[in-house]
Amino acid sequence: MSFVLCFLWITIAINKNIKKKIIFVDSKVMKATSIEIKKRIVELREENGLKYKEIAFWLGVTHSVVKKVLLDHRKGVSLVPGKPGPKGQRTFSAELIEEIRDYVTQNKDATLEQIQGEFSHKVSCTIPTFHRLLARLGFRYNKNLACRRAR
């Protein structure tokens, strides 16, 4: 009888610890990994030679976080997170946007392919990029027969 009680007590204790661990991990979902944890991941791997799962267990992060941090470190990517937002330069300059606006205003029946062909020597981009630009500029109408009759 005492064996059964002892076994039940250990099982309950293990289940409580597992639930606490799961709650701890779930509360950290979708949060950025701090620089200190990233540095500690690299230190534990290089100095102590710990495995990914061991590092993840000790630091309370997932296996994939450890893998990504170490992969970035091997590639030479900085551990400091980058600035959010668009990367690189804009496709269209302010002058080119004005030229496109003037062209579309003068040629209202021009298709996206025609607009792309007109400006292909100035900018290299896809038709959906032109579509998004025209939507941002306020040219939002579909080219169909009913639309042409209404104008």
CATH class categorisation of the largest domain: Mainly Alpha
CA-to-CA gap between the ends? 89 Å
Strand content: under 5%
Residues in helix, %:
55-70%
The count of β-strands is: 0
Based on the structure given, which CATH architecture of the largest domain is correct?
Answer: Orthogonal Bundle
Basic shape: rod-shaped
Average pLDDT taken over every residue: 76
Q: CATH topology of the largest domain, anyone?
A: Arc Repressor Mutant, subunit A
Tell me the structural class.
Answer: mainly alpha
Order of helices and strands: HHHHHHHH
Low-confidence stretches: 3-9, 15-29
Integer count of domains: 2
| Biggest sheet statistics | none
Number of helices: 8
Short structural summary:
This protein is mainly alpha-helical and 151 residues long. 65% of the residues lie in helices and 0% in strands.
Please tell me about this protein's structure.
The protein has helices at residues 2-27, 35-48, 52-59, 63-75, 94-106, 112-118, 127-137, 145-150. Mean pLDDT is 76; it is low at 3-9 and 15-29. The protein has two domains: 2-75, Arc Repressor Mutant, subunit A (Orthogonal Bundle), CATH 1.10.10; 94-150. It is mainly α and 151 residues long. The longest helix is centred in the first third of the chain and has 26 residues, at 2-27. It is 65% helix and 0% strand.
